[in-house]
Each structure stands twice: as structure tokens, then as C-alpha cells.
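2024-03-11 09:14:02 DEBUG pipeline.ingest accepted 1 chain
2024-03-11 09:14:02 DEBUG pipeline.ingest length=365
2024-03-11 09:14:03 DEBUG pipeline.predict start
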Amino acid sequence: MAAAADRGTTPDVATRMRATLTSVAPGTSLREGLERILRGRTGALIVIGHDKGIQAISTGGFALDVPFTATGLRELAKMDGAIILDKDASRIVMAGVHLMPDPSIRTEETGTRHRTADRVARQTGVPVISVSASMHIIALYLEDVRHVLEDTGAVLGRANQALQTLERYRNRLDEVSDALSALEIEDLVTVRDVSAVAQRLEMVSRIAGEIDTYVLELGTDGRLLALQLEELIAGVDAERELIIRDYMPTGRRGRPLEAVLAELAAIESTNLVELGSVARALRIGTEETLDGPLAPRGYRLLARIPRLPISVVEGLIEHFGSLQKLLAASIEDLQNVDGVGDLRARGVREGLSRLAESSILERYV
């Protein structure tokens, strides 16, 4: 990410930061105003939101309550004091305001304007923007997170590099996923095989999240990047859920799908390269049991059969219990499942046969 410092971001703060980045992305009036201030070399302190918390630490200034314009923001920045906007950055509420946050709030910033911005953001939870004339940067503060808004060219360069990395990881993901499908057909799956696919899915998801932040920062300049990202991560979220449902332990060791996804996301990047860490998060094994056998339930392969409702998939898996039993089932056996008539049973039987044939051909040819 382009963040100058990320001091631990909770999901709520991350969501709000994304919304704020959208409001200051290239192509928005607020970003135009900020760039005008940078070019004018005057600097500014801008608060996005006017609530009781901001009022409590504000003195002086004068009320405006006028529609926001980029030129208006630029002119007001020539004066001393902070500029306060409404929460949507659609109106300029006040200007020339002296902000007095709690001086005991810890901050690592050095400049007066940046220290004030950091403390106000931490104390009130309202987004604050500091424009530095001397350093020629725009810094966005939200609670305990600081994010530097960079030049579009620099962000686009890093985004394209990340996109190339994502493409390589996606290709590798497809390879290990196809290999797992063949192993499932042959009933040769191990903890290592499942962990390798889950690992690649998590890596792809994390890189995609980084690129998604770049897309937000780029605003209108990131439309092509967004299309490329969407194409590269198609089906990844669904695959993550399917592999968990296929191998997640049941009974006392079972957990909700969301809990497993959260545990995978909590793995440190340095530990994600270790398959044992992934196996532990999935609760399917450890470093010592990576070569232990596993049996899939069949969610991944059934999801590849066209026009098969999830209710039918659930019914088939509940009835047969494992992929191997599904593969061995006849059309008559399949018809014993609620919601599976003759036509659908033939479709499932033919679909599984085609998948089995193509997976084994891809593996050995």
C-alpha cells in the first residue's frame, strides 16, 4: 500500500479509510482543491466532519456553510487556521479555526500542522488532511492510521507491478487447483495438497486487496486497472469458501466458515509461506502431518457442474457424505436424493464423469 505508516488497522477503520480515500481520489473536487493548494505552496489543515468532538476542540474562525469548491478551498488555505468541511466534503462549514487537541495524545509527527492533524484524528475519529508546503505531500489521518496521497504516476507504477505479481500467482493457483481436482478424483489428497491451494488463494486475495487500494487512490485514473483486477480474481472468493467447506472438520472441531476465513487472514505474511501455518488455520493438520490423507466432501467439483442449485449440492453431500461415494453413485442412487429427478441425476452423473476424465487427462497428458 501507499501508506506511509500503518499502525494497526481495525476492520471499521479500514472501511472508513477506504471511503475517505474515495472522496480524495483523482477526479473528485476535493482532490482538485488539495492539488491546487500544493501548487500554491501554502499548506493546509482540513477536517472532514463537523460534530461535537470537533466543536469541543475548536476556537476562533468564522462560519461559512457554503457549497464546497476547489477554488474556494484553495483561497481559504491562504489564511491561518484549519478548514472544516461537512462529513461528505460537500460544504465548507468553517475556516480559520484554531484546533486544540489534547497535547498528551501520543504522536510521532514532527511538524506543527502534522502533529495537530494526527492528534485531532486520534481524539475525534474524524478524517483530517494535512497539506505540507515544504515537503510537498498530502497526508490523510484517520484515528491511528496515516496515509500519504501520492502522485498518480507513482501509484499507477506500483499498481502495475502488483498486477503482474497477481497474474503470476493466479496462474500458479490455477495449476495447484487443477492438480487438487485430479487428486480428489483419484482419492489421493493429502493435507499438503489442500494447504497449498488454500495458501495460494490467500496470497492472491491479499495481493488483490492491495491493488484494490490502489484503484481507490487512482479514482477515475484506475478504471482500467479495476477491470484487469476483476478479471484476475474472478471466482477466487467462491473457491476459498468451497475448499474450506470441502475439508473443514465437523463436530466439536468444526467452526463457522467466517471464523476459518478470519484465521487465514490473521496469518502473518512471513508465516503464510509455511504450509503448516495454513493447515493449522484450517484445522486439518500441522507441519508433522502434511502428508496425511484427506477426503473431500465434493463441494468444489459439484460447483463446476452447470445449473446445479446449492440446495441440491447440499442434499447430495449430506446424502453421500464424500466425493468418492458420489463418483461411485449410479443414476438410480442419485435419484434417491430429495430434489434430484431423472434429468438432474443424469446431469450430475455426466458432469462428474466429464470432470473426472478431464482432470486425469490434464494431470497425466
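2024-03-11 09:14:41 DEBUG pipeline.report The CA atoms of residues 24 and 31 lie 5 Å apart.
2024-03-11 09:14:41 DEBUG pipeline.predict end
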